[in-house]
Amino acid sequence: MLQIQSLTITHRKDLRTILNNFDLVLNRGDKAVLVGEEGNGKSTLLKWIYDPRLVEDYADAEGIRTTQGELLSYLPQELREEDQEKTVYGYFSELPAFQEANPSELRKTAAELGLPEELFYSDQKMWSLSGGERVKVQMAGLLLGRPDILLLDEPSNDIDLTTLRSLEDLINRFPGAVLYISHDETLIERTANRVILLEQLRRKTVSRVTVANVPFRSFMEERARAFDKQKQEAYSERREEKKALERFRRIEQKVESDLRNISRQDPAGGRLLKKKMKAVKSLEKRYDREHEEMTEVPEEESPITIRFEQQREMPAGKTVIEYSLPELKAPDGRLLAENIGLSVRGPEKICIIGDNGSGKTTLIRKIAEELLSRPDLSACYMSQNYEETLPYDETPVEYLAPSGKKDDVTAVRTYLGSMKYTKDEMFHPIREFSGGQKAKLLLLKISLTAADVLVLDEPTRNFSPLSGPEVRGILQKFPGAIISVSHDRKFITEVCDRVYRLSSNGLKEIEFESDERIS
């Protein structure tokens, strides 16, 4: 059992309360998902639970964490810098659990995660692994330690579709407790039996946490119904209050008018009107009490708001790309695939899928280079590695309004507000933001251009399950062409017209079935 009592976390830089007096009990068998908009403190909470020292450099935390001797294992959102230059074997050899594991245990762990068994002994540098391979290597290290509680920060990021299914099975079969963050709505719907929603209301001045012991889809449906019912009751009461107050004001004005105009020669009439005025004042107090007891209009943290407004319609017959590549090689020279060909015309929306390490990111980067150099197209590229395209030392305002002109800055601040950035955050260095906040910046930057082609590497990987539907809707309505790499099953089914699978033999168009498996 993991118990958290009276936890309050405050962001030190802007004094924003991330959590306020938060309590939680996590029992064996619980599969609890942490959800909330980007920057709401999900990763901070997970870090504090694992080791409070991980948040000491940027947050103040007070609270009690209690276990009954359980072993906690933690998967960070990003590989630690000190592990980047290690070989895979060097990474594993520093884990006591790896040293103690016998060959059958290694074989079983590798099979669970879809890892080749020989990878345990590989001299390949950790940084050179694909994003999904890095996640799987770290997960293997955790599982070898036989933990009682898993704390997973975005375990579904970057892993291929086959491994996503394995991850779902792993979470469901895990005998202990799992507390995890994920933006993969399909994985959440298939695994979580508890939902912890972190919200920041009133321009991020009020923190609210909702804990529900139901699956995610049930939680969202019940929450929507409860909000709708409460809204209807609140608005109905306010309509009735408005009518009652209008009647009251008419009576009050009539009595006040009669009092002003009554003759001094009519003392009895004056006494009667004063009694009426006393009754009017009593009625006013009653309305004040009733107003305080009215159903509150429910508060919720609305998803992001963004629109593509400057983009022009892509002609249906326009050749976007006729791409041919005899050989696709990794940065270290390894041959990944041969005989690659891709043809895109008009406003098609294409998705490339494939196993981790198959070269999807390498391929889409090459496609982006060709499209960005085309004079007849306006292309934008969203890299999986945000550091490639975002100036980390600039603020969001500096990035989006480089001219510094007052009108440009004012417009950009309005756009940032629609993406749920606070006034303080607009002037923080980009490097301080969460992955989701960085993704929002890139998407906002793209929306402010006249792009007619988007090249997107895992575009939805860091958007919350609350913002995910909004982002998918935006991209689905984009009037130009989209060439993407994604493992997001809802993105693939809702946005993409055609799906290609990358293997060593090149690209092959496939049917992506409704049950979200690959044919």
In short:
Helix content is 39%, strand content 23%. The mean pLDDT is 87.
What attributes does this structure have?
single chain; 519 residues; alpha/beta; Rossmann fold; 3 domains; six-stranded mixed β-sheet; 16 helices; 39% helix; globular
How do the helices and strands line up, and which of them pair or pack?
Elements: E1 2-11, E2 17-26, E3 31-36, H1 42-50, E4 59-67, E5 72-75, H2 81-84, H3 88-93, H4 96-100, H5 103-113, H6 131-144, E6 149-153, H7 161-173, E7 177-181, H8 185-191, E8 194-201, E9 206-212, H9 216-261, H10 267-292, E10 319-329, E11 335-345, E12 349-354, H11 360-372, E13 379-382, H12 396-400, H13 406-418, H14 435-447, E14 453-457, H15 468-476, E15 481-485, H16 489-495, E16 498-503, E17 506-510
Parallel strand pairs: 3-7, 3-8, 5-6, 6-7, 12-15, 12-16, 13-14, 14-15
Antiparallel strand pairs: 1-2, 1-4, 8-9, 10-11, 16-17
Helix pairs in contact: 5-6, 9-10, 15-16
Can you put this structure into words, describing what you see?
The protein is an alpha/beta fold and 519 residues long. It folds into 3 domains: 2-223, P-loop containing nucleotide triphosphate hydrolases (Rossmann fold, 3-Layer(aba) Sandwich), CATH 3.40.50.300; 236-292; 319-393 and 429-510, P-loop containing nucleotide triphosphate hydrolases (Rossmann fold, 3-Layer(aba) Sandwich). It has helices spanning 42-50, 81-84, 88-93, 96-100, 103-113, 131-144, 161-173, 185-191, 216-261, 267-292, 360-372, 396-400, 406-418, 435-447, 468-476, 489-495, and strands spanning 2-11, 17-26, 31-36, 59-67, 72-75, 149-153, 177-181, 194-201, 206-212, 319-329, 335-345, 349-354, 379-382, 453-457, 481-485, 498-503, 506-510. A 6-stranded mixed sheet has the order 5-6-7-3-8-9, with helices on both faces. Strands 13-14-15-12-16-17 form a 6-stranded mixed sheet, sandwiched between helices. β8 (194-201) and β9 (206-212) form a beta hairpin. α5 packs across α6 and α15 (468-476) runs parallel beside α16. The model has no long low-confidence stretch (mean pLDDT 87).
